[in-house]
Amino acid sequence: ESSTQRTIGRRSRPRRSRWCASESWSGTSATCVEFGAASTVPSVRAAVIHETGPPEVIRIEEIPDPEPGEGEVLVRVAAAGVNRFDVNQRKGGASSFPLILGNPGDAAGTRADTGERVVILSGKGTCAELTVAAEENVYALPEGVELAVAASVPTPYRTAWWGVVGRGELASGQ
To answer: Nearest Cα to 147, choosing from 119, 116, 121?
Structure first.
């Protein structure tokens, strides 16, 4: 088997992606996934659970390409953030299956329609090669920012903002 082919059942197809061998931590968030270049296969690979439990319940499966709805953007995921919510879903919080991890989740990659580098928050199933997110949750990413770093920022940032401004009642001028 070559590095560009992988056998699934009795058929072969070009390899679409790879899991990272290591994790990159930033605050309370870890970047778990980096995906390789896309191929012509009409499905995407995703981290999916069919039951709750230890990390071993996570399976890499082929799923249909997500279809963006009204006001949504299709994003090619380069890196996905893993936060406490994601771990809790896998450990026992999820109630409907199968579940693509990172739902809702943070990710970074490129818009499928424009090729622009973006970071997304509250995406649908971000631990997949393609995901959809509401257009208002998709932000342009400057060239100097690494995609893996960008994917680890949204949830910890919102948590810190809520703690300082919302709960701590930080006001302008303080």
So the answer is: 119
Q: What is the pLDDT of residues 64-87, one digit of tens each?
A: 999 999 999 999 999 999 999 999
3-state secondary structure of 112: coil
Q: Give Cα separations from 163 to 14, 30, 151, 168 (angstroms).
A: 46, 20, 21, 6
Terminal Cα-to-Cα distance of the chain (whole angstroms):
62
Strand partners, 105: 123
The Cα–Cα gap between 63 and 122 comes to 20
Q: What is the mean pLDDT of the chain?
A: 81
Token pair 């290591």 is found at 22
Question: In whole angstroms, what is the distance from residue 173 CA to residue 169 CA?
Answer: 12
Answer whether 90's CB lies under 8 Å from 57's CB. yes
CA–CA gap between residue 57 and residue 51 (Å, rounded): 7
